[in-house]
Design a protein that fits this description.
The protein folds into 2 domains: 148 residues; 263 residues, Spore Coat Polysaccharide Biosynthesis Protein SpsA, Chain A (Alpha-Beta Complex). 57% of the residues lie in helices and 7% in strands. It has 15 helices and 9 strands. The strands form 2 sheets. The protein has a 7-stranded mixed beta sheet with strand order 2-1-3-7-5-8-6, with helices on both faces. A two-stranded antiparallel sheet has the order 4-9. Helix 2 packs parallel to helix 6. The longest helix is centred in the first third of the chain and has 70 residues. The termini are far apart. 30% of the residues are buried.
Length: 555
């Protein structure tokens, strides 16, 4: 009886353990299902967010004009780029073929004495051998007189010496042939290595150019419709695509060094990887000036892109030309003396907006910078990025540090102690040296400009606000200074005050501290230091109040 009870007890315990194990397994399965459900919900939320962004992008893509001359330039440039890398591939393959030919030539080279002896030399050797042998036999005949025997022996010796000399020359020739073979083998090996490396590089560049070409031929990538980008943008795309991994790693390492130094100086946004949301586009009117601006920006981590400024000489042929930048011509209120300048500035911006609308940047915002400006050496990037990230009111474009007498009724909520205005015809907002725009707003701004007469760019924001078409504002932060207007020749003669690399500039700033981070040209001998940016702003206001642009073109 006790045995039966023991068996039943064991059976019950086993069943209980199995039940407990089963319950644990079920709980684990349920927990796993819940975890997966959460992941799926997160993914769905992420997908919905991406779809919302895509819909927002597509809404902005309602109008992307195709400028025929730019499309032709872009297509020609792409075709030339593809042909160039194909030529590089062909040249590398031809080099490999020549290397193989050299290798085969070396392999087939006979380095023996017999192999280096020509038929003529063989005949001569045979003749020398026969003649010297014959004379030696004759010299040993008893019938010859002593004098004759001496003569014959002498002649035989001469022939033997000539034969030995010829054999030594052939030995040297064989040794030289060995060296030649080794040289050919070495040359073939080096040539083959070079050709293989060049082929690999060329094939990589070909893939890069092909990828850019496909992205500009209406191919749908990353769910976004692509249009032909302007030539200057395609050049930058190809240059970036061709970068080697070592070059990219070096750039990232440099960014990390800059980020560390800026962080030590208390900068939250400057060079911070999580705030890499602004692209700087330099309006390249003069290479010398644009180079200098890039040197100023080199201490920062703003990715730069150069866009060519439209030449004034070209705008005449574009006025009222269909599907181009001056479809509606220039506003008749613009004085004739500056009409070409206004038109060229207008077209320069149109070209940038068309390119960004066709192939949106990865960055959320972009800066349009005139090439002859000076930027704050410490706070430029920090101000731009933090404003873009934190200003609470909606905006599409922001004019930075405009000159003129602003109207207090235009004031919006200030930002970090800096005044912000909503441009209107009641105030003066002169100067477009630096404009911050949202990438998603580029198509809408472009559409509005394409339906307008060309006007001075510093009246554009007020016109937009007057029609509630685009939300435009001005920020007075003292981070940009524009010189008086210079001719191209004057720009060429200007000396750039920046001579160090960006990292060296930054290390010097960090070592001295922020307060001493001013260009040498700003150091004053007077008791109170001169605020350079405020000083130039005041000069700009005085000039603007007397300038032709002070006309009311916003009516």
């Amino acid at each position: 009886m006790q045995a039966v009870l023991l068996v039943l007890s064991l059976a019950f315990t086993s069943h209980a353990l199995e039940s407990e194990s089963m319950s644990s397994l079920v709980a684990k399965l349920q927990a796993e299902r819940q975890r997966k459900a959460v992941l799926i919900d997160h993914q769905k939320a992420k997908d919905m967010l991406e779809m919302a962004k895509q819909e927002e992008y597509e809404d902005e893509q309602t109008f992307v004009p195709v400028i025929a001359r730019e499309v032709e330039e872009s297509e020609n440039y792409l075709n030339t780029a593809i042909e160039a890398v194909e030529d590089q591939i062909s040249a590398a393959k031809h080099k490999m073929h020549n290397a193989k030919a050299l290798e085969m030539k070396a392999k087939n080279m006979d380095t023996s004495i017999e192999g280096v002896t020509s038929e003529q030399e063989k005949a001569k050797l045979a003749k020398l051998t026969f003649e010297s042998s014959f004379l030696e036999k004759e010299a040993h005949k008893n019938s010859m007189r002593e004098r004759d025997t001496s003569f014959v022996a002498l002649e035989a010796g001469k022939l033997s010496a000539e034969k030995r000399e010829m054999q030594a020359a052939l030995q040297k020739k064989a040794e030289l042939r060995v060296q030649e073979k080794l040289g050919l083998e070495a040359t073939a090996a080096v040539m083959m290595q070079e050709a293989q490396k060049e082929l690999k590089t060329a094939q990589g560049q070909h893939s890069a150019v092909e990828a850019v070409a496909q992205a500009n031929e209406g191919v749908f990538l990353t769910g976004r419709p692509k249009h032909m980008a302007p030539k200057w943008m395609i050049e930058a795309q190809i240059s970036e695509a061709k970068e080697s991994s070592s070059e990219k790693n070096a750039k990232e390492e440099l960014k990390m060094q800059k980020s560390y130094l800026w962080n030590k100086m208390g900068k939250k946004y400057t060079c911070a990887a999580e705030h890499n949301q602004v692209k700087a586009i330099i309006m390249d009117d003069n290479k010398h000036a644009a180079d200098c601006l890039e040197k100023q920006l080199d201490k920062y981590c703003l990715e730069t892109l150069r866009a060519p400024a439209m030449e004034q000489a070209k705008v005449h042929s574009l006025i009222q030309k269909p599907d181009d930048c001056l479809v509606n011509g220039v506003d008749k209120r613009v004085p004739k003396s500056v009409k070409d300048r206004v038109a060229s500035h207008w077209c320069s911006v149109i070209q940038v907006l068309q390119g960004i609308s066709a192939q949106p940047l990865n960055e959320k915002y972009f800066l349009l910078l005139e090439d002859d400006i000076k930027v704050d050496p410490v706070n430029f990037e920090e101000t731009i990025k933090s404003f873009a990230d934190t200003y609470p009111h909606n905006w599409d474009l922001v004019q930075l540090d405009p000159h003129g007498k602003h109207n207090d009724t235009d004031k919006l909520e200030s930002w970090n102690g800096h005044e912000v205005y909503r441009n209107s015809k009641h105030g003066q907002y002169f100067g477009t040296s630096a404009i911050l725009m949202k990438t998603l707003s580029a198509p809408r701004i472009l559409e509005k400009m394409m339906n307008m007469h060309a006007v001075p760019l510093d009246t554009l924001a007020s016109l937009f606000n007057g029609k509630d078409a685009v939300s435009a504002a001005s920020l007075k932060a003292g981070i940009v200074s524009a010189p008086k207007k210079l001719t191209l020749l004057q720009k060429d003669k200007l000396k750039c005050g920046v001579t160090q690399s960006g990292l060296a500039q930054l290390e010097a700033i960090e070592a001295k501290g922020e307060q001493s981070a001013q260009p040498m040209s700003l150091i004053q001998t007077q008791a109170a230091p001169l605020d350079f940016f405020a000083f130039e702003a005041k000069l700009g206001e005085q000039k603007a109040n007397k300038n032709w642009q002070n006309q009311d073109l916003t009516a």
